[in-house]
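Help needed: design a sequence for this.
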């Protein structure tokens, strides 16, 4: 029988992906940028480290990974650093549906998907002249939300756009005032079940520190613009009465994905939401893969504890799915 190994890029959520794979009995491979090996050695999660000088070298090590019977578990770094075209062209077994990458990375069709699933999304304004409420302006490809700004009117928008001359590729979205909540799901092809593995909130610089400065001082500081650069994640447990709706949202998102992009979305994914004072759940984004917000739960979350009665991270859940698929002769169904 083929002894499969689990490989991933050493970044983002690799520690839990590799740890989880080992817990399920797989040998592991970390594909690591030169100079970034330390955590993967120190925590003992990688049986082998393949060092590269640049992410663009990944296609060059494919033959080696094929020889090792590696299954690649993707996370945000893969598409962010390799680009969606190069990911599509990878020949090594890839956990997930590659076709979904386009649906999540193009805001226009992502919206067709999520609204088709019945999710409430922030209103989008096609023309700045239509702005009639607070909006957030998001630039395409802005790393970590850098440069996003909030505007309250057309005048305000025009004034702030002066700092973004020549940047044409942006979206004007209704700004939803409420608390941010990132829901971590897992949809199993083997069991056909949608699972909620946890929730997190993000810790973003500098927006999460603005509240520490009084409004008077904020006015006094020149150029105090919020940015949304991710620094870390904070665990969250939601009000229990919100759970039925979160389960329904996850299930509908999967069902809709089967129609638009067969065989649809499976494995881990995340709905990025804002919950308003009316407890309306507004989804502004989907990540169709493991999110780093699952990292606080390497030993399991309250929700995985309820379901599994053993430590179950998202990384481990992925490895268990692969293990079950191998046993049930379903591996082809979960590899893209
Ligand atoms: P990194 O490997 O840290 O450079 O991150 C790769 C991609 O994942 C970047 O686009 C980051 O913005 C995103 N990312 C990394 N860590 C997190 C996190 N904790 N939460 C959300 N996104 C993240
Ligand atoms: P994104 O690049 O879409 O993941 O957004 C980055 C950050 O901007 C999020 O983590 C939120 O803090 C904030 N954000 C994005 N869209 C909205 C929205 N429509 N309303 C309020 N906050 C938002």
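Sure. Designed sequence:
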């Amino acid at each position: 029988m083929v002894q499969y190994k689990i490989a991933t890029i050493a970044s983002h959520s690799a520690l839990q992906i590799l740890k989880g794979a080992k817990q399920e009995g797989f040998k592991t491979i970390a594909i690591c940028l030169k100079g970034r090996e330390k955590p993967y050695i120190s925590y003992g999660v990688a049986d082998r480290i393949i060092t590269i000088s640049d992410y663009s070298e990944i296609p060059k090590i494919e033959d080696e990974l094929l020889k090792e019977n590696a299954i690649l578990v993707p996370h945000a770094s893969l598409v962010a650093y390799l680009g969606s075209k190069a990911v599509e062209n990878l020949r090594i077994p890839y956990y997930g549906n590659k076709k979904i990458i386009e649906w999540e990375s193009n805001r226009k069709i992502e919206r067709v998907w999520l609204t088709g699933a019945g999710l409430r999304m922030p209103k989008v304004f096609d023309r700045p002249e239509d702005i009639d409420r607070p909006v957030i302006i998001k630039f395409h490809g802005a790393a970590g939300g850098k440069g996003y700004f909030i505007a309250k009117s057309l005048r305000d928008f025009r004034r702030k756009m002066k700092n973004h001359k020549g940047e044409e590729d942006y979206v004007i979205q209704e700004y939803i005032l409420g608390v941010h909540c990132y829901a971590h799901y897992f949809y199993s092809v083997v069991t056909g079940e949608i699972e909620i593995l946890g929730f997190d909130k993000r810790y973003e610089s500098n927006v999460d520190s603005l509240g520490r400065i009084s409004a008077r001082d904020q006015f006094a500081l020149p150029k105090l613009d919020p940015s949304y650069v991710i620094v870390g994640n904070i665990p969250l447990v939601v009000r229990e009465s919100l759970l039925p709706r979160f389960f329904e949202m996850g299930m509908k998102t999967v069902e809709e994905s089967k129609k638009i992009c067969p065989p649809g979305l499976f494995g881990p994914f995340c709905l990025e939401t804002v919950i308003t004072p009316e407890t309306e759940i507004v989804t502004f984004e989907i990540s169709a893969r493991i999110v780093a917000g699952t990292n606080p739960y390497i030993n399991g979350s309250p929700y995985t504890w309820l379901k599994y009665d053993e430590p179950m991270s998202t990384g481990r859940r992925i490895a268990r799915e692969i293990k079950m698929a191998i046993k049930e002769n379903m591996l082809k169904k979960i590899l893209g």
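The domain at 103-120+177-204+232-327 is CATH 3.30.470.20 (D-amino Acid Aminotransferase; Chain A, domain 1).
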